[in-house]
């Protein structure tokens, strides 16, 4: 049983986590942020990230045979690190999206995915 | 009159705790100068969102509300019951507050009244700085406008087009809900209530659907063709009988004669009847032609003719 702030604290405890943000996908709003924040503007990155997810969903929906799509998580690896995006379906509105940026060398992608999965189950029960 | 924003800023500076009621529009609740809850008549409340999700019965919400006390707020009771997690409650409150605040920001013509000490039964679940709240409202407004810049659909019933020109459409789940829930009579705000979704999200979905060309526009769009002639047609038809009807009103036999051709619709026979009966009703000085003479007497008709002539001249 986790609150939003606790959840982000837990996300930041994932080995190699640099910063994290919780996004309301519908409005593109940063609900809460964890760690870092020195280089990034939470609002702008929330808007950008929800746009990434939207574009990916649209693109994949068209590309997949059924025309419908459900993303469990999304990993984008850049020169500097990994971006892990995980949409959480909520019963009210949403989805909520957890985004965490991981250090390229210090992080373990499989572990991070696993932890994010466990955390999202604590935050939202569907 | 002071704007909502200024009043709230003042209360925030005083670190006030209590409720700010904005007439019938809705209420803000503050705790130590931060907004902890807001409700607007234009947006579903937290309890509406909770019960619409089928996670919690209306009865359980009522129970939690009645049992809420200063130390143990309704929100904590719901979480303790295990019907929803702390995170879900926070997110639900967050959504409902931002949603209500969006509609309260623009509220005008109310008489604000602050009641110190009054709190919402859910208790403080999420804290909003007044500045942040209004910044978010502005961002949401901008987002609506960049999706679809016109507010013309915001208050009109949502009418999905029967046929669309696109070859493939990608919808979000909320857009789907809006389309399925739209009955061509419900405006977005009522649709949000019906679906149990935040009113802003529904409004955004409606604008997105409009920008994808899936909704009937009030006018000008091809989809409006069945509606567009219907609307001007009615005034045109009513003005038709009334204009000649004014001079024709004194003679009662004319209306009695109308039922004679029953095959044709009600509005058309009047004209054909007028054609044939005009010589009959020649007493009304409309001897020479059918309806032109009736127009000459009326100054409004004269004006209309002059405007018509001007318009025709302008065309050539």
TrEMBL record, chain A:
This is Roadblock/LAMTOR2 domain-containing protein. It comes from Streptosporangium subroseum.
UniProtKB/TrEMBL annotation, chain B:
It comes from the Bacteria. Residues 222-246 have a biased composition (Low complexity). This is DUF4388 domain-containing protein. Residues 268-278 have a biased composition (Basic and acidic residues). Residues 247-264 have a biased composition (Pro residues). Residues 217-299 are annotated as: Disordered.
